[in-house]
Structures are given as structure tokens and as C-alpha cells.
Amino acid sequence: MKYFEFTNNVKICSGENALVNIVFELQFLNAFKPLILSDAGLKKAGTVKKVLKILNKNNLDVSRTYFSIPPDSSTSTINEIAEFYKTCGADSIIALGGGSVIDTAKGVKLVLSQEKDDIMTLTGNEVINAGKKIPFVIVPTTCGTGSECTTVAVIKNDVTHQKMEFISSTLLPDVAILDPMVIETLPPKLVATTSLDALTHAVEAYSCKQNNPISTGLAITAINLITQNLFMSLNHPKQEVYKLNLLNASTLAGMAFSNSMVGIVHAIGHALGRYNVPHGNAMAILLPACIKFNLNVMAEKYSELLLYFKGPEFYVSILEDERPNAFYKEVKHFVEMASNITGFSLKLSDYGITEQDFSEIATFAINDGAAAINPKLFSRADVIEILKQCL
Amino acid sequence: MIKFVLNILIRAIKVGLKLDTQIAQDVLCLPKKYVIKINVLPKNKSVTIKLENGKITKLKHWQYENVDLMVEFKDEKSAKEVLLGKTSLSTSFCEHRIKIYGSVNDAITLTRIVNLIECYLFPKFIYSKLFTPQPKMEESKLKFYLTFLFGGKL
Ligand SMILES: [Fe+2]
Fold it and tell me: CA nearest A272: which of A289, A260, A257, A258?
């Protein structure tokens, strides 16, 4: 690429007790009355209560809340919350959750900062100006989306049921809080699948067309952290340090892919999301098959990735010509190990996908935003072939 | 110059729609009645087309009120590089040379159509550098050019 842009102006507070910094950070942004967004699952798991208790203890007004965000961020939910924000007298937003809570919060911030009533009037890529300042803090509760540091939000259009992509640097929050306390009760399956999502972000950020030197560095560090900490975390779930490292990896991979974008794995994964295949699971299933698909075009990059994925000793033990294929095999093995330890399936058929669905999934995949970024052009037939391998 | 090349691109898309079923299939991915504008900043040189019933019609500025999808080049140099086959539309998108107003998914469909059209318009030594692998053309370039030049009002 002859030219690149890199955007990331998010302050990151990471580590033990990071949550207590929210109060200071909001004050710094002249905000005192946040609207706190989360979902029913986190409320039920007790995470919301724990976080509210900490914030309350540190004298933050936590009376404005909305905890009914559905698993799919949608246009109507965003418009409803934006309206609620105006009537409840909030002056800032805290998003506590995974991908859908964060994307919803980004949508709400967009509507409010552009002083609009409907998110659908703001669709597009890089078409929005900075707008009105809405202080915005994100607390991710999974170790995968990296959405706290991305300029993208994927939001479902309630009318057409289409997943719309919104791309703008104004979607970034002011602060991301990475506190291992909020993921201490995250089930091992979700630790594994969300981390594999982050791994996919790093691999695609490293190898896709929009790749740049800054994203490359971030992606390499993310890969190192994931390979060194995922199984340690699954084997020692009580030790916070491994989960914190996975959270950091997720954020780094998020920064990387926000500026490099993602490719075929995400294009097909987004399409599978319409069939309710959870995103992290879809990534785990698709990543090896898509690496295999890209192999002939990406040999050099995948060869380099083998070094970061397996370390120098393993790397030099493999003949130069065999390194790209070795990378594919090692990623496949890594994903299979995660699946065996935590018990999630690597077969699309176990998520209700049948061969009859392939044609529609393939059409959605080739029209996904990520399709334009993959280093190798792909067709409907290519997607169907990959889906067959994953059934 | 930009306006002239944009008009060539539109006519080429019309020819492609007539001759290559892949383009017809891609047009089907877009909403049935759809107005697309390609605009080049800073002087707002543009062409606007309407897709309706699988047909493409070029619109004058007084013939439309709303644009459903606008692909806007941030500067003329970037637009020329795409329109003259020096770079692909997707690379231009990757390099942040383009803004998209409307559905990003529909813009990707348009990108795929333009990719194939560039293969018909340009010699292999040009388009082979733009795409890996190269999109497969269903028709011969000769037929494409003959239809382009003598196909009348498409
Ligand atoms: Fe992802």
C-alpha cells in the first residue's frame, strides 16, 4: 500500500482496579451523570451489580441505566436509548458489555453527537464530522471484540434486517477500561471463542490489504499474548493475570484491525451471524479454512506469522517452503485444542447450518465490507467451498 | 477529463450488464430501485445513475432528488488512478481515498462490478496487477468493445 492512515485516540486504563479510574476519567471529561448501558445477561451474572457498587462507592451517580440491550445491536434500540439519554439528563455514556452493548453505545453516541433522531441517517464510511462532544467510556466484558478501540459499529437495520456497517473515527470512546475483574466469571467457552476472535483480528490485520506498519506491530503483540495466555487462562481460571493479558491482546488486535480491517473470515462470519452462529465460534470454525484458501496468495505473510505464532525455535525447524502450510496446520491445531478443552463445536451443522443455507450465506459474505479488504478476491463459489469444509 | 472518464465507466457498466451475467447477478444484489452517484471532490464532478428493473439509466441533476448510495473520491488524483486502471477501487477504499454515503455492503457490490468492468476495459498487463486472482470475464473483450462502440443506446 502506498499510503495509510492510523487512528486511535483512546486512553487505555488496564489492570487491577482499573474500574475505579472511571470516576476520575469522567471528571476529566467534565461528566458527572453517565448513562450506563449493559445487557440482561451481565445483570444476571452479577457483573453489572459489582461494577455499579464500585462506581457508587467512588461517588459516581449511577442512577441512569439501560440494561435491556438485545444480543444484536439494532437501529430501534439505538434510537430509543438516544431519546432516553436526552430525557434522563445524562451527560456521558458508559458501555459495559461485549460486542452488541459496545456497538449499541457507539450508535447512541453517534446519534447524540450528530444531534439526530435516527441512526439510519448516518450510514456510511468516513462521512461524519466530529460533532458534539459526548464523553464516552467503554468497559469490555469479553476478551475478543476489541470494539473499545475500533472505528466500526455493526448495527442491524430493523426494517430490512440487514447488518449495516458504520465506519467513523467519531465512534471511538475517550477511555477504555480493561479490568480483569469484569471477566472473572466469563465461562471458559467464551474465554476461548472470544480470544479466537481476537486472534482472527490479529491474523487478518497482519495479512489484509489495508495492513500498515503500526497495525503489524500491534497484531504481532496480540498474537504473542494470545498464544502464551489462552491455555494458561483455561487451565488456571482463577489467576487474573492470564485473563488480563487476553484482554490486552483483544484491545491491541482491535486497534490493529480497526486500521487494517479484516478479510474473508469476517466476511463469512458476519454472514453466519445472521443465522445466529455466535461470532467467536464462527471465527474459530472459519479461521483455519480461510487461511488455507488464502495460502497461495499469502505465503510470505503466513510464513512470517508462523514465527510469531510458534516462536523462533519452531520457525527455524521448518523448511522455508513449508512454513505457510505449517502456519495453517498450527492454527488449526490451536483452535482444535481450544475446542477440545472447552467443548464448543467446530462444525457449522451443530449451529443449525445446512447446505441449503450456503447460497444465501455466500451472497451476504461477498457483499460484506470485509470482502473488499481480503488479499485474494473471492466468489460465491469460493465461499460455498469453504462452508462445505466447515459443515 | 474526469467527467469524460466517468461517462465511459457508466457506458461500460451498461455494456457489462448486457453481456456478462455476473454483473446482472450483482445488480440483483442491490435494491430494486436505486440511485447511485459517483462524485469527485473538490469540484464535485459527478455522474448519477438509476438502477430500475435490471436497467441502468443515467440521470441529469434535475432528474433525481435522493441519492441512495454515493461513492465520493476525496480528490481528483485518486479518482484518476482508479478510472485509468492504476489502482483498484478496493485499494482506493483501503487507502481512505473514498467516502461512502449509504450502505457499505452495496458499495462492495458496486466495487465488484467495477473490478470486472476494469478487466474488460483495460489490457491484461494492467488489470493483472490490480486483482489476485483476476475476475473471470464471460465475454470476449472484442465483443465488449464492439458493443461499447456500436451498441447504440443501451
Ligand atoms: Fe471479530
Answer: A289
Q: Is residue B154 part of a domain?
A: no
Judge: A164–B95 Cβ closer than 8 Å, yes or no: no
How many angstroms separate the CA atoms of A380 and A359, rounded? 8
Of A285, A287, A206, the residue nearest A253 (C-alpha): A206
Range of the domain at B141: 2-145
| DSSP per-residue string spanning B68-84 | SEEEEESSHHHHHHHHT
Chain A interface disruption, residue of B30, B93, B105, most A CBs within 10 A: B105
pLDDT value of residue A1: 64
Mean pLDDT in runs of 10 for chain A (391 residues)? 89 96 95 97 93 92 95 92 97 96 97 94 85 97 95 88 85 97 93 98 94 97 98 96 97 96 95 93 98 96 98 97 98 98 98 97 94 93 98 97
ipTM over 0.90: no
Domains of chain A, start order: 11-183 (3.40.50.1970), 188-390 (1.20.1090.10)
Q: Which residues of A touch B (CB under 8 A)?
A: 1-5, 123-127, 162-165, 167, 209-210, 261, 297, 363, 366-369, 371-373, 375-377
The CATH number for B66's domain is 3.30.1050.10
Closest-CA distance of chain B to residue A293, Å: 12
Cα B114 to Cα A226: distance, rounded to the nearest angstrom: 39
The reply to whether residue A127 touches residue B96, judged by beta carbons under 8 angstroms, is no
**Which residue from A minimizes the CA distance to B111?**
A372
Interface with chain A: mutation pick from B94, B97, B134, B137, highest number of A CBs within 10 Å: B94
Q: Parallel, antiparallel, or unpaired for β A34-37 and A11-14? A: unpaired
- Interface contact B24, partner A, CB < 8 A: no
pTM score, two decimals? 0.93
What proportion of chain B, given as a percentage, has pLDDT over 70? 100
B105 contacts A368? CB cut-off 8 A: yes
Pairing of strands A65-66, A34-37: parallel
Find, in chain A, the residue whose alpha carbon is nearest to that of B90: A372
Q: What is the per-residue pLDDT for A308? A: 97
Cell digits for A260? 487494517
* Chain A nearest-CA residue for B31: A160
